[in-house]
Prior knowledge:
The complex is a heterodimer of chains A (136) and B (138). With 136 residues, chain A is α+β, with helices and mostly antiparallel strands.
Amino acid sequence: MKLFSAMDIAGSGLTAERVWMDVIADNIANVNTTRTAEGGPYRRKIPVFQERKDPFDPIGSGVRVVSIENDTLPPRKVYDPSHPDADKDGYVRYPNISVVREMVDMIAASRAYQANVMVVNSSKTMLLQSIDIMRA
Amino acid sequence: MSKLFGEVFQLLNRAMDAATLRQRAIAQNIANVNTPDYQRVEVSFEGELKKVFSKQREIKLRGVLTNPMHIPIGPPSIDSVKPIIWRDDTGYYRYDKNNVDIDRELVKLAENSIKYRAMSSLMGKRFAMLKSVISSRR
């Protein structure tokens, strides 16, 4: 049904923004991680958003996160010879994460989430109103 | 249908369909507010309706249809109004080439839901009128 699909679209937006929020939380939690399973320091993660197209519908059906990829910036080097993960020149490689940037992204994600919640609420009200037509 | 319910119902029906479609378009735009290269989707209905109204005013002659194969002659009916869905590719101001303006979309969302509320209460009132006509005796 068409009106429900407006809610589905907003729901896909909520999912995408929540994934982004999870990724930001992961980035902030790992701001000082120097050891990972793949080796080397933690790398900043970025979710890649894509519009979800529908071949039978020109409007489309929302958004999806197609992949979560690594930032391509090189790690930040800090001179600390006593650190167990320091290389032979005494440099420790830390993740390329700027906490300020993550905070800005966090605000963007939470505002986008709120906007999608507004769409859900407005669609819900519309749907209830159309039910009320016959109550008159 | 048209004898009992009249043209107003037809019009409300079309307009509410268009509002539903527009709600989906706005939902799509807001869901994709952070998608790079996304182009806004837009629904035009009022303009199309206006075109049909002005044609109805201009064309007075109407051909009588006695066979379903006949080509209709005369002013177009409200049923022929179709909302147009199009992508806005006129430009962007963001670095990621996304042209969704979140403020504009939220304003349109509020506008659309108020319009829908007006139309649905109008529809309810029409039904109530019909109902009172049917249920009143003598």
